[in-house]
Design brief:
The protein is mainly alpha-helical. It has one domain. It is built from 3 helices and 2 strands; from the N terminus they run αββαα. Helix 1 packs antiparallel against helix 2. The termini are close together.
Length: 119
């Protein structure tokens, strides 16, 4: 398997993207299930889902919560754009780019830096 020497700015962008996605996931977990206010409801019988059938009233998200989610999503889009349009990808043969992009997602998980040098 080929490994790649990712530039520091690309690794930093990937790290920032990971952090933004983690923050967004954590935030959304704390919010009501419905963005807009919604009355309690119950899913009809016959659905295969193993989750609860009853859903309580949802107060919806506050304007501040909507702004926080929107800001994190915008940051996520911006970082994704930085990563996808980075000049590094032009140095990688087109057929190998999907694998190189996949490896980038996991490059920061490697404690010993293995996989960050071109083979």
């Amino acid at each position: 398997m080929t490994t790649y020497a990712y530039p520091d700015d690309l690794l930093k962008a990937q790290q920032a993207l990971n952090e933004v996605r983690a923050s967004l996931k954590a935030l959304v977990k704390t919010l009501p299930y419905s963005v807009e206010p919604m009355e309690a409801w119950e899913r009809p019988d016959g659905y295969w889902l193993a989750t609860s059938r009853a859903y309580p009233d949802s107060p919806g998200w506050s304007e501040q919560e909507k702004k926080e989610v929107a800001a994190l999503r915008e940051k996520e889009r911006d970082l994704t754009s930085v990563i996808l349009t980075h000049p590094f990808w032009s140095e990688v043969d087109a057929p190998a780019r999907p694998d190189a992009r996949s490896q980038l997602k996991h490059a920061l998980e490697r404690e010993d830096g293995e996989g960050q040098e071109a083979a």
